[in-house]
Design brief:
Number of strands: 12
Oligomer: single chain
CATH architecture of the largest domain: 3-Layer(aba) Sandwich
Structural class: alpha/beta
Order of helices and strands: EHEHEHEHEHHEHEHEHEHEHEEH
Radius of gyration: 21 Å
Pfam families: 2-Hacid_dh, 2-Hacid_dh_C
Domain D-isomer specific 2-hydroxyacid dehydrogenase catalytic: 5-319
Helix content: 25-40%
Domain D-isomer specific 2-hydroxyacid dehydrogenase NAD-binding: 110-288
Keywords: Oxidoreductase
Bound molecules: glyoxylic acid
GO cellular component, one term: cytosol
């Protein structure tokens, strides 16, 4: 009997044709509606491999019933949607998609920083709504990016790629990470700072950390209070690293001056989300790695990881816990 592979969202045919040659491949066929949890759980019982999205919860209960499952290939670098410990206990490989999305995600993160700093979305709406009546000296004045201080929390590959972009803008670079990154210090002139120092000294605080027990709710009311009143907070990591109520209050009370957010505690957010009522917030629908080229690469890498594990080899990019 052929191994069964279940794919939880519609993917371009060419990225999975290799899987179809060897396995019985089934795919949730809607592009914009996630597979219901009950359906995924049923499919997981029979599957040898799952190709999952970051919005699918692969928890202990699902894994406990997934007796044939050998690999979960997540179409993301983050894997906080998967109980990796429960998977490891069952000998199930979890694989993610690092590296292929690094530059694309860094581009988006920097675009978000620039959009928030120079009020790009607000200004674009202003023109489209016919509000532009005259040129004036301080019309939609934002703040400078060049020669300012960026503080990057989470100096993995993406953090370092953002630092490289910041260097091109003559920014001073601070970073905070679980472990020091000598390569970023030597090549990019990044300076290690404690989390508190980074919050206090940065003009742009950029969160690119993974979500785990030590980063959950890292950005509290106190962290925002430490920041400069002119600081802009950028989050392209995970929503739950931030206390969203505290962020909302900090923006409302002028503790910080703006935010650019690609991720939220509970996604997707609707138009009634409190953060959307603030003109100094730029919000995006979790599109960090979303260029056509990169999303194709990510899908191909997931397929490759599945192929490798089901043919008895090591995944190319397994998650290590
Ligand atoms: C996106 O957020 C990812 O983890 O790849
Ligand atoms: C992984 O650590 C990344 O930031 O790409």
């Amino acid at each position: 009997m052929k191994d069964r592979v279940y794919i939880t969202r519609k993917l371009p045919e060419e990225t999975i044709s290799g899987l179809k040659e060897h396995y019985h491949v089934e795919m949730w066929d809607k592009e914009d509606i996630p597979v219901p949890a009950e359906v995924l759980r049923e499919k997981a019982k029979e599957a040898s491999a799952l190709l999952t999205m970051l919005s699918d919860s692969i928890d202990g209960d699902l894994l406990a019933e997934a007796h044939r499952l050998k690999v979960v290939a997540n179409l993301a670098v983050g894997y906080d949607n998967i109980d990796v410990k429960a998977a490891a206990e069952k000998g199930i490989t979890v694989a993610n998609t690092p590296d292929v999305l690094t530059d694309t995600t860094a581009d988006l993160t920097f675009a978000l920083l620039m959009a928030a700093a120079r009020r790009i979305t607000e200004s674009a709406e202003y023109v489209k709504e016919g509000k532009w009546k005259s040129w004036s000296p301080l019309l939609l004045a934002g703040q400078d990016i060049h020669h300012k201080t960026i503080g990057i929390v989470g100096m993995g590959n993406i953090g370092q790629a953002v630092a490289k972009r910041a260097k091109g803008f003559d920014m001073n670079i601070l970073y905070h990470n679980r472990s020091r990154r000598p390569e970023a210090e030597e090549k990019l002139g990044a300076v290690y700072a404690s989390f508190e120092e980074l919050c206090e000294q940065s003009d742009y605080v950029v969160c690119l950390a993974p979500l785990n027990e030590s980063t959950k709710n890292l950005f509290t009311e106190e962290a925002f209070r430490r920041m400069k009143n002119s600081a802009i907070f950028i989050n392209a990591g995970r929503g739950a690293i931030v206390d969203e109520d505290a962020l909302y209050r900090a923006l409302l009370d002028g503790e910080i001056s703006g935010a650019g957010l690609d991720v939220f505690v509970k996604e997707p957010i609707g138009k009634d989300h409190p953060l959307l009522s603030l003109s100094n917030v730029v919000a995006l629908p979790h599109i960090g790695s979303s260029s056509t080229e990169t999303r194709m690469e990510m899908a191909r890498l997931c397929a490759e990881n599945i192929n490798l594990v089901l043919s008895g080899k090591q995944a190319k990019t397994p998650v290590h816990i």
